[in-house]
Amino acid sequence: KQGTVTLMLWAMRSIVNEWKRDKSSIEGKIVDCKAPIVSFMRFGKLQRFSKSQLLSNILSDHAHFFHWNLIEGSDPKRRAVDGLVDICWYLPSGQDSDSFPTVVSFANLHGDCSKHHLQREFLAKASDVNFVLVSHLEGSNQSDMEMLQSLSQAPAKLVFVALNREVKKEAKKLFKNIDVCFNRQKTERNIKRKWKQLINSKLENIHDYKCLSDCEKIAEGISEPILIDENDAFITGGKIQAYEVRSLLKESSSTDDLIPLQGKELWGRFVEANNELHRLNKHKEGEVESYREAQQRTIDEIRRKQCEIIEKLNPNCCVLKFILYLSSQEYSYFLQNLKLMLENYEKGQIIGLEHLFRETGQMYEAKKSLEGKAGLEVLHNFDLPDVAAKLLIDGYPLELMDGDTTHVPITWVKAVINEVVRKLNDPKVFVLSILGVQSSGKSTLLNTMFGIQFKVSAGRCTRGAFLQLLPIEMSELKCDYILVVDTEGLHAHELDDLSNGLHKRDNEIATFIIGLADITIVNIKGEVAVHMDDILQTAVHAFLRMKKVKLNPRVLFVHQNVQSLTAMDKGAQGRRQLLTKLDRMTRIAAEVEECEELYKTFNDIITFNTDTDIFLFPNLWGGDPPMAPVNPSYSKSAQQLKTRVLGIVKEADSHRPFSKFNDHMSEIWEAILYENFVFSFKNSLELFAYKTLEVQINKWTWNLKKQLLEWKQKTKNIITSSKQDELDKLESRFITEVDTIIQKEWHDSTKEEMEKFFQRNEQRDILIQWRQKTEQKLLIYLTEEYTAAEHKYCRMLIAKREQQADAEKVLLNHQQHILEHVSKLVSELESPSQTDESVAYKLNKTFDEKWSEWMEELTQLQVPQVDQYSSIRSSIAESLKSQPQLSTHPVRLNEKFPLEPKKDPKLDVIHNQHIVSSSIGLTVKKMFKRNHNMPTPQEETDHFIAQAKSNIEKWEDFVSLLIDELFQKIFDDIDESKNSFSLQYKIDLAIEIGQYALYSLKLLAEEAKRKNDPKVYFNKKKEVFFRMFCDKYRKVAKCKQNADLLLSILKESIVNAVLGLLDGNIVDEMKCASNAFTSKRLLKAKVLRSLVERKESFESFFMYITDVKESLKYWVGVFVEDYCKETVQGSESSTVEKLVDTMLHDYISHLSFAVSLMKTVEPERRDLNFFHTLLTSTGKVSLDFDKTSALVQVDMKDFEEFIFELEKGIKEIEIKIPDLREKVLEENEWKEKAAKLLTNDLIGCCAQCPFCKEQCDKILDHADIGQKDHATDLHRQECLGSYRFIRSQKMVFSICTTSVAGKESFRCKASNDKLVRYDRYRTIYRDWKIIPNTKKEASKFWKWFVATHSKDIATAIKAKEAEIPQEWQQITEEEALEGLQITEVESDWEVIEDC
Predict the structure, then answer these.
(1) Which terminal Cβ of the chain has fewer Cβ within 10 Å, N or C?
(2) Alpha-carbon distance 527 to 668, whole Å?
(3) Which of 1119-1148 are b and which e, b meaning 16 or more Cβ less than 10 Å from the residue's Cβ?
């Protein structure tokens, strides 16, 4: 408060000084250090003399006190310091050259002591020696003399220092009992010596020293009490709380009582079990799964014991009081007081604040392990993450890595960060970490740069890793906080005896810290080559790992304690030498990581500039401690380093949210636990990122598919509606339309979305590796592929329509015969005289009888058919024409080689027949020394057949038109193969594929015959002809007859139009209605759920396991059926009925619009031809003009009445929409088409894991965007893949991810029954990537399934039953289904886990 004097004890509590006595180092709180206090004050003005400068010179050459002779920071008027008493200490170094043998406190009162009576009185009582400097006594009044006289009566020895001879003489007259000395103006060196002698002489007989803490009573006991800053209510409250906690510490007999959750039997075992759970280093052969479960049980048991300990805690125990007071208003003062007390307390060497915080974290993790179960009542009133988050926001460090066990309590740390994210609205952070050897000044450097207070002292003080949030108020940096991570020093002397353990610990710390950071400062101390090489090797290896997992942190090198000026001046040379070392370390690390061809220089693995990214720092001290001042050049270098850091922050395009740092930290720590950081981290991150990309690509391609489905239906309708002589003009129109859809609308919008996706996605650094291939796949290859395919579709559709011309003529002629039969029948019948009902019955009966006779005539009707056998033979022969060896081959072009329809084509490669003889030796040799990615002849043959089958299925409607192209493509692929195939091979392969094509064509022909059979065709038209017959018989007006006929035909067209798009619309609605149809994984979860809920047999389950493709196809059909039967909420209609009704309304509206348009055209243009054009030009519906015009014949003069009748008829159709809907739904093909469309969109790759038979997750062609390997992260027990132990023949319960992390072996047909180590499985299954993960378990569902069906599985795979783990037997069916729900939730990261 203004006008008050305050003793700043609290402000000095945290000051720690270090000095030496008898060559022994002493470190302590300066306020508690008992030392003589020497005070200096002045009376009146001192002419041309600075008391503060004198004091600074006495202590050392450094300006310890501000004085008016300083160039910077001084103020002759003392506006800031007048009346201030500041204090400084002389700290001995234990050398003979010390000025004083012990610590001495020097207090300095700024200003005239006569004007500051409280300060003067306090110093007089608190000091051991009091020096008063005077330059004149003339003009002093009586009160001044009394004041000076009173100083002599104080406990402190008073020394009156006269600055000239006159004052000395006068002072001796006035003050008989006061020491008076004369400060002679001699050389500075002599002045220092004389003053030191004087002070030592005055201190000689003083032994009862005070500490600054003792001065509190003195301050309170003077005439007007001086305020004590520690008497503030908050500080006092915090001190009381801290005393209470400290007293509880004193009462405890051991540290296990104080921090029971961290005892060796709990925390030590927990960390050991957790590490072993991930690494499985000590398991016995054949017991991986049971060993892994044993480690998990150990972890669960430790958590259970921790919970029991917490339940029994006294609410007044040390840790709970600690947590309680952290939640109070005085928490910051409580923490500071407790910290000070613990540092002074003998147990403080063992128990520190970090242990209490660590115990808090363990309480939280133990509580979380209960998974929502009731318990731990003592913690119900505490939100532990909230308490820790508040401290982190307020600038307190958070322990990230436990320094005692090198373990990251990930659940606790993530919870705290999540709470910070919530409180600060997920701020953007830039992460800065520091790495260096022990005691290299890392914490000091960070404290100097950012004004923070990481703990510093000699030796190994920082243990583990701590993070601290620094708020930023510079908008141009585009982030809210810098997150500073301080770490323990590497190569700790106290851990030297651990050897390999130390090296492993250092590597883990370096990898973790560098992996977290955007910038890492590598701090090198001194110029000792061994130390420098050690830290550089560790750091470079960690940076190389980051490069291999697509992380790109920056690095700054700080070379501290560069002693000589010449070393600083020769910076360029030093930088070059450092870069040479870094390049050498890079080559060493690359050799270890087996990537020496890729990384040969440091710049190959990280962005690095020797001119801007290497900083040479002088020594921190400007002389020999403890009295040496801080070197100003050190601070200047620290500022330059800080400027560079902020410059890099500013250069960054964007910064990650704190929540993403949280996820990133978890992934890095998880990967480190597996001891194979690159493989674990890279693959888990890449799998996550690739799935994100794959889902997005699936969305983009589905959007295109939807547009093309609609366009195809429209094109088909227009071609069907067109006259034969108009077909030639349509191709160019359709090609233009589809080019616009694909290359303009879809291409441009997808390109824009793709740009945003790759720039804004959090995994953009990983996704970048697939960007180019994705753009090529979608924007170039896929665009070209779809464009070419749709062009081909147009041509094939037109060609097929032209091919059907003869058949259409036959049908048209017979239609004319039926019309004649109808007219003749009408003329033979009498005019109606009966009632309407009897007439209707008579007409119906008569027409049915005659219709049967007319249909019998159709048995003689011959529709032209194509000879598919001859077509395929000639195609094979035509494709073989160019083969040079053909003339000498037994198969001739005209030879009738046998062809039979074949459902499953298969060609076994026989080397002496199918491989060119001159290269057999070479090929056999290649089999033993084959390129890793080169397929075998048999693998390539299977691929050729699969590709041909895919193309035949894709173009099934047009196979007969594309057969030549199909064989030419196969032969081109064979010619491009690296395997040397013979002509016989080409012929045999062509015959196999030709027989499959024949099989497909046979099925198509049967289907076409069924569809286009004249009886079938005309039976569909029966209603039209019956309507015509009735209207003629009743002599209905001609216009109404024609209108009724046309509407009958149009109703059929509308039904066909709905059927043409119904499958795509059903799939689209199913995707919108349920996530299960947006992801392969979710689809599989739904299938498994259905298998359980519908009580399917074991055989159905086993079909899903062994032939997942066929099983999924079947179940997709079931789901389509189920979806279509579902009832719409608030309605009695099913979903498909509602959908069909909507579509029918749309088509009827289109029909109504076309009719209304006819009313607006000129009368001379009103004819059936123009109406046909209006109705069919948009492609909404199809209408064969030739067949329609043969039935409907309207005079121009009657057209207006015809339109009137059409409008009436359309209104009647709207009323009878349910009848049309029934006609749509009675067709069954739409269900099959919808199921096939959904299956093709979701199932994707059907490769199954070679060990557990789980299906590959991927839905895209692996090679399309650079992902060639099969992969899944839902592996299950290997017994489901028919694996059993060789000796015992018992089922194997291990899951693949666990097996490939170990060193056990397997054998199978693919390995020629030779044993292969699991961790080398890719030598056999080179196209599968299985990520080692010993912690990952089979899902609860598969545990339940194996436990429930153990006997059936054993029988199916011809193995013996194994002992089922107790945990599996206890899983209920409900829990198994809940396990599927967890899979669904985990999978649905915006369907990111989807594949």
Answers:
(1) N
(2) 33
(3) bbeebbeeeeeeeeebbbbbbbbebbeebb
Lowest mean pLDDT of 566-575, 652-661, 841-850, 928-937, name the range.
Answer: 928-937
Give the separation between CA 1377 and CA 1093, rounded to whole angstroms.
Answer: 9
* H helices present in 517-602, as ranges: 529-548, 565-569, 571-592
Mean pLDDT of 844-856: 82
**Bridge partner residues of 980 (DSSP):** none
d(CA 110, CA 133): 12
Residue 81 CB contacts under 8 Å (≥ 6 apart), including other chains: 66, 75, 110, 111
Contacts of 481 (CB under 8 A, 6+ apart): 427, 428, 429, 430, 469, 470, 471, 472, 658
How confident is the model at residue 487, as a pLDDT?
Answer: 84
Residue 500's pLDDT band, with cuts at 50, 70 and 90, is very low
1212 alpha carbon, distance to own chain's centre: 58
Look up tokens 């909404």; give the residue: 1180
Question: DSSP letters of 1221-1278?
Answer: HHHHHT--HHHHHHHHHHHHHH-----B-TTT-PBP---S-TTTTT--SB--S---BG
Q: Is 143 exposed, middle or buried (0-12, 13-18, 19+ CB in 10 A)?
A: exposed
Three-class secondary structure of residue 295 per DSSP = helix
pTM of the model: 0.61
Name the one residue in this structure whose structure tokens are 């020895």. 157
Q: Characterize the bridge pairing of strands 6-7 and 481-487.
A: unpaired
**Pairwise pLDDT comparison (1354 vs 720), residue with the higher score:** 1354
Signed CA dihedral, 29, 35, 37, 38: sign only: negative
Round to whole Å and give the CA distance between 1384 and 1276.
Answer: 16
The number of C-alpha atoms within 13 Å of 509 and in the hemisphere containing its C-beta is 35
Phi-psi region of 192 (alpha: psi -120 to 50; beta: other; left: phi over 0): alpha
Query: Which regions of 368-489 does DSSP assign to beta strands (E)?
Result: 398-401, 428-436, 465-471, 481-487
- Count the helix, strand and coil residues of the chain and give each as a percent rounded to the nearest 5: 60, 10, 30
* pLDDT band at residue 403 under the 50/70/90 scheme: confident
Which residues make Cβ contacts (< 8 Å) with residue 1224, sequence separation at least 6?
A: 1055, 1058, 1059, 1062, 1140, 1144, 1230
Please list, in sequence order, all residues whose beta carbon lies within 8 angstroms of the beta carbon of residue 278, skipping any fewer than 6 positions away: 670, 673, 674, 675, 1334, 1335
pLDDT greater than 90 at residue 775: no
Q: What is the DSSP letter of 161?
A: E
CA angle (240 as vertex; 10, 37 as ends), nearest 5: 30
Which of 407-411, 643-647, 861-865, 1059-1063 has the lowest average pLDDT? 861-865
Cα–Cα distance measured from residue 238 to residue 395, given in angstroms and rounded to the nearest whole number: 18
**469: pLDDT strictly greater than 70:** yes
Q: Is 998 in contact with 972 (CB distance < 8 Å)?
A: no
Contacts 24+ apart (CB under 8 A), 1225-1233: 1225/1136, 1225/1137, 1225/1140, 1227/1059, 1229/1059, 1230/1059, 1230/1062, 1230/1063, 1230/1066, 1231/1117, 1231/1120, 1231/1121, 1231/1124, 1232/1117, 1233/1062, 1233/1063
- Residue 337 corresponds to which tokens in the numbers above? 């007081």
DSSP result, 380-400 = TT--HHHHHHHHHHTT--EEE
Percent of the chain past pLDDT 90, that is, above it, reads 16
CB contact burial 1295-1304 (16+ within 10 A = b; e otherwise) = bbbbbbbbeb
In order of 1150, 1240, 1260, 1394, the CA distances from 1077 in angstroms are 32, 12, 16, 10
